[in-house]
Amino acid sequence: MFAVASVIGVFLSINRRGGSDRIRYWIVAWTLVLVHFGAQIASGLYTGIAGTFAVSVSISTLELAGVVLLLSLSLTFKDRKANRYLGCIIGGPLMIYVNCLIWNVQSRWIFVLCILVTTAGAMSLYIRFIRSLTPVMFFITAWCAVTAAWLIRDVQTGDGSLALYFSLTGLFTICGLIFWRSFRRFSAGVVLSSFGFLAWAAVFPTALFLATHHPEIKIHPEMWNIPKFFVAVGMLLTQMETESIKAGAMALNYKSLFELNVAAVYRISLEGQLLDCNPAFLRMFGFSSREEALTTNTRDLYAVAGDRKRYLDDISERGYVHSYEIRTRKRDGTYCWISESATLMREVEPPVILATAVDITPRREAEAALRSSEERFSTIFRKSPIMCAILRFDNGAFLDVNETFLEVMNKTREEVIGKTGVDVGFWQNEEQRREFARQLRLQGSVQNIRVTFRDGKGRQKEGLYSAESAEVGGMECIIGMMTDMTDYKALEDQLRQTQKLEAIGRLAAGIAHDFNNVLCIIKGFGELVVSHIQHDRKIARYLNNLLEAVERGAGLTQQLLTFSKTQRLQKTEFEADEAVQRIAKLLLPLLGEDILLSVTAESGQMVEMDPSQFEQIVVNLAVNARDAMPRGGRLSIGTSFMPGKLAHGAIRLTVSDTGCGMSESTRRRLFEPFFTTKPVGKGTGLGLATVYGIVTQVGGEITVESSEGVGSTFVLFIPATAPAQRAQIPEQAASAIADSVSHGTILVVEDEPPLRDALYEYLTESGYTVRVAANGKEALAIAKTFAQELKVVITDVVMPEMSGWDLVQELKRKNYDFEYILVSGYADDRILQYGVKTAGLSFLQKPYSFPGLISMVEEKMKSERPEKSLIAHG
C-alpha cells in the first residue's frame, strides 16, 4: 500500500505542476487500487457481513480501477461526453454483476442483462464514435458477441463467477494493448507498463486455474500484486519520458523561435546595448559572430541618429511598436530597411526591449521600382504618339486622356474629362457606344476596329481602335488606344493611284510593242516601194514623208516605253543641248496652246546618264510648270555651262515659269514623296520627288526659287563630261567594208506574217538568198537542211513556244557556224531577261530601218571575220 500511495503522491505532484485529464484519471485509478488493497486486508480480518462487504469493496474497486484505466487510454478519451457514456456502460453493469455475485443473488436474468448491456453498449458506442464498421472493428464485435454468448451460457449452467474473472482479465489486457498503441515507442516506461498490464490480466485466469486444478500449489498473496507495481512504475516512467519529450520539444521550439528563426530576434537595453541576438540578426547586419555583435551599441546601426530617438519615444509611450520601418546601417556600411516589432519589458530591472525584425529592403526597392514604373507609365501615357484614354465602363465618361488624344481631337482637357465619347464626337450616338461596350464585355478586349469620328473642328477622321477592360482604383474601366489613320488613308489612296498608273504603264508597254511591229511593217514596205520608184520623185517624196511619220511614231513608242518605266536604265553620253531641243518638240502638244515655250540651249557639253532619265527630268518640270499656269503663261528652258561647279564642271539646266508660285511651307516639302497641293485624284506627288532622286543619283544638285504670285525657277546642276566628238567613218573604210561583203543565205525567223514577207522581199531584192520560218521549230528544221549555205540568222526575240534566245542557244549547241541578229519591239528589260545583251549578240530595236538591217547583215557576211558584239537600235 505504501508503494501505491507513493505512486499517487507522484501523480498528484505532477498534476499540481500542470497536469492533464489523463493524469487525473490515473490518480483516480490508483486511488481505487489503494482502496482495493485496504479492502483486501480488511476482508482477511473480518467474517460474516463485514467480511463480505470488504470483499465486495475490494473486487468492485479493482473492477472500477480497470474501467478508469481503460477510459484514460480509450479512443474516446478526448471526447469527455463519449468517455462518460463508455464508463457508465461498462462500469455500471460490472458493479451490479459483481455485487449480485458476491451477495449471492439468485436472479440469473440480472447477470445476463449486465453481460448484454456491457457488450452491446460498448460496441455500439465505439462503432458510432469511429463512424464506420472497419474490418478490425467487425472482428472485435464478432469476438465480443461470441464471448458474451459463452458467458451467458456459463451463467445458465454454472455459478456465473467466470464472467468476473473474464471481465478483469479483459479490462487489463485491453489496457495493455491500448497503452502500447497510445504511446508507440520502445521506451522503458511504455514496455514495462504494457507488459505489466498483460501480466496483471494473466493473474486472474492463472489463479482460477491453480485453484481449480492444483489446489495444493500455494502462492503468497503478495506475489499476485507484483504486476500492479510494474504497471505503476511503468506509468511513472512513461510520464517522465513524456515530460522529457515535451521539454525537448519546448527546447526545439525555443531553438526554432530564436536560434532558427529567419527573422532577427534580439534583446537590447534602453541605452542601446545589445544583450542577446540570434543568427538571423548576425546575418542581417553582417556580424561574423555573436561576440562581435554584443560589443556593438545599436546606436551605430541607425542610418539617421534622429530615427533612434523617435523609436525610443514611441516605444516608451505605447509600450510596444508594430511593423516599425527604419533605415539601418550594416556592419560594412551599406544600408538596408527593416520592419521591427518590439515590446518594452518594464517588469524586469533594468527594463529591456525584446524585438524581432525582418529585412524589407527588397520590398522597399520593389515599391520604389513600382513608383518609378508608375511614373514611367504616366510619362509614356502622356507622351505616347498613340491616342490613349481611360474611361468608365458604365457610362463611357473619360477619366484621363493623353496629349496626343487632345491634339488629334482638337480639344482641351476640360472639354474631354468627364464627358462621354458621344459628347466629344468619338461615337455617333449612344447606341453605338453601348454596342461597343457590350462587345467589349463579352470578349474582354477588342483589337483594331475601324472607327470614324469627328474632331473639335468638325473634320471627319478615321482610326484603328483597340481597348481592354481593366480595374483602375477599384472601378471597372476601359483602357483605350487608337491610331489616327487619316493620313494613312490618304497615303492608301495615293498608293492606289500609283498602282493605277503602273497598270497603265504596263498596258502602254504592251501597246508600244504591238505598235512597233505595225510601224516596222509600214516602214519595211515603204522602203521597198521607195527602192522601186526612185524615178518618180513626187511619189518618192510622199513615201519619204510617210517614212518620216513612221520615225516619229517610233520615237513616240520609245517615249511611251520610257515613261511606262519598263525601259532599263543605261548610262550613255549624249549632247545635253540636243536632248533639250528634242524634248522641247515633244512638249508642245503636252503644254497646250496657251503656254509659250522658249528654249535656250547654250551649254555645248556632253552629259553621261540614262537618256530616259534626262527626259523625265525635263518633262516632269515642264508638267509641274503647266499645272502652275492654269490660265496660260511663259515656260523657259535653258542650258549653260558652269566650269567651276561640281568636279569637272556642270551643265546648268534652268526651268522657269510665270505661274502661281508657292509658299515657304510648300517649298520646304516640295520634294517629299506623295506630297502634292493638287486635289485628290489630280496628282500622285511623285513627279518632283522623281526629279530630285535622279539628280542626286547622278551626283548633281537642285534648287528652287519661288514666291506666291510670282512664279517658280528650278535650277539643276548636272555633272558634265568631255565635249561632243562625232565619230565619222572614212569613205574609204566604208567602201572597203562594202567590197568585202560576200553574199550568202539568210534565215529570217519572224512570227508576224506581213513583216516576215516584207523582210523576205527586201533581202531578196538586195541580192541575198532568204529562208523564212514562222517559229523556232521551223527554223531548226531549215537550219538542219541548209546548214552549209546559211550564214546569218535574223530572229525575233519574243515568240510563242520557243523564244529567239532559246533558238540561238539550240543552234549553238548543234555547233552551227552562224551569225545572229536578234530583233524585238519589247523594252530593254524584257530583252535582258533572255540574256541577249549579256551574251554580246547583235540586236535591233523595232521599228528598225531595212537599210540599217542590210548594213548589219553585210557586216555579218564579211568573210573570215571574227564574231563581234554589236547592238543597234532602229
Could you list some keywords that capture this structure?
874 residues; alpha+beta; 7-stranded mixed sheet; 5-stranded antiparallel sheet; 22 strands; disordered C terminus
Write the layout of secondary structure elements.
Layout: H1 2-16, H2 21-45, H3 48-73, H4 80-102, H5 108-130, H6 135-157, H7 161-183, H8 188-213, H9 221-224, H10 226-259, E1 264-269, E2 274-277, H11 279-285, H12 290-294, H13 305-318, E3 320-329, E4 335-345, E5 352-359, H14 361-383, E6 387-392, E7 398-401, H15 403-409, H16 430-443, E8 445-454, E9 460-472, E10 475-484, H17 486-532, H18 537-563, E11 572-575, H19 576-591, E12 595-601, E13 606-609, H20 611-628, E14 633-642, E15 650-657, H21 664-668, H22 687-697, E16 701-707, E17 711-721, H23 731-740, E18 745-749, H24 753-765, E19 769-773, H25 776-785, E20 790-796, H26 804-813, E21 819-824, H27 828-833, E22 842-845, H28 850-861
Helix pairs in contact: 1-2, 1-10, 2-3, 3-4, 3-7, 4-5, 5-6, 7-8, 8-10, 17-18, 17-24, 19-20, 20-22, 25-26
